[in-house]
Design brief:
electron transport, 4-stranded antiparallel beta sheet, metal-binding, about 20% helix, about 80 residues
Length: about 80
């Protein structure tokens, strides 16, 4: 499972940080950060979801009010 985070879209509500510890608050610019991610393109961050954290990642994606977070299964199909 893979998660993608569009940091440019993020508006800093930080609801994702309450759902999954991989999301951290960046108080300096008022947006979240996705820990241990790679920048796939400008402001798009990607990482694999560790085993056992899939539900937390899905909750984080569902909690985002601006849909800045997407979750994909192992076949590349978006599930959240």
């Amino acid at each position: 499972m893979r998660i993608e985070f569009d940091r440019d879209t993020c508006i800093g509500m930080f609801q994702c940080t309450a759902e999954w510890e991989a999301f951290e608050r960046d108080e300096d610019d008022g947006k979240a950060d996705l820990a241990d991610s790679e920048e796939a393109s400008e402001d798009l961050f990607v990482r694999e979801v560790p085993d056992g954290e899939e539900l937390d990642a899905k909750f984080a994606a569902r909690s985002c009010p601006v849909d800045a977070i997407a979750v994909y299964d192992d076949d590349g199909e978006q599930i959240v």
